[in-house]
Each structure stands twice: as C-alpha cells, then as structure tokens.
User: What shape does this take?
Amino acid sequence: MRTIDLSPLYRSFIGSDHLASLVDAASRAEKQSTYPPYNIELLGDDKYRVTMAIAGFSKDDVSIQVEDNTLTITGTRKTEDKENQERKFLHKGISERNFERKFQLGDHVKVLAADMENGLLHIDMERVIPEAKKPRQIEIGSRLIENEK
Assistant: This one.
C-alpha cells in the first residue's frame, strides 16, 4: 500500500480535513472491479455524464442512489430463467453478472437524470454552485451585515 504525504497541502488549505477524507475514499475506489466498463464525459463547463455498458440488464435490475457525495450504481439480476440455464454456450463473452460501482461526486454536483438505451446506462450530472458559495468582492473597511452571518 502506498502512502501520500499531504502535509505540504495543509499549509495552504484551510479546512482540509475534508480533503483527507476524499483521498481516503479515492484509495478505496481503486479496489473496485473493472466491471462494468464505463466512460465519464465532460459535456459542458459544469455538466457531466457517466455512461456504463450494462448489456443484459433491464431498468428493473439497476438501482441508482446518491448519498453523502457518493453515487452508487448497483445491478442485480432478479432471477436466472430456466431457459438461460439450459443453454449451452460455445463462447460466453457477455458477463451479465451482478455489480456495484461507486463514484465520488464533487461538492454541489447533482444527479439530473438517468436513462438506458441500447445496453448503455447514461447518468447526467451538473455542478450547481449556490449563490452563497460563489466568489464575492469584499470592500476594504466594510462591515459584515447582520443578516449575512
């Protein structure tokens, strides 16, 4: 296991304890399997799309959940029908196995929509920064107004 010394970052970041938890989550994500394959696209300045190849899964077999800045996509085949068990494959390259894939979302990234088409699952996201978090100019000599606290 490799270790990373983040102490130089702590000199210039305030409240960087959140950064340490993100690094920890990223190191756990490295241990995920590579199935199913996926793409992450940048569609615009603050718009993203995750596309996963999930051949053989229906909408009812896939669950998408967002909790604590973690996007979790789970695919579970409900039942293997008898017809599938009786089939004899000369080559079986389509896995159709159950999966769970997790993605760490940045702050203020919201999942907008999910859609399945031609064996591909598309999840659209956007970073929406609230007005209170956007940069603002501070006048020298000004006082903080009571309602802005």
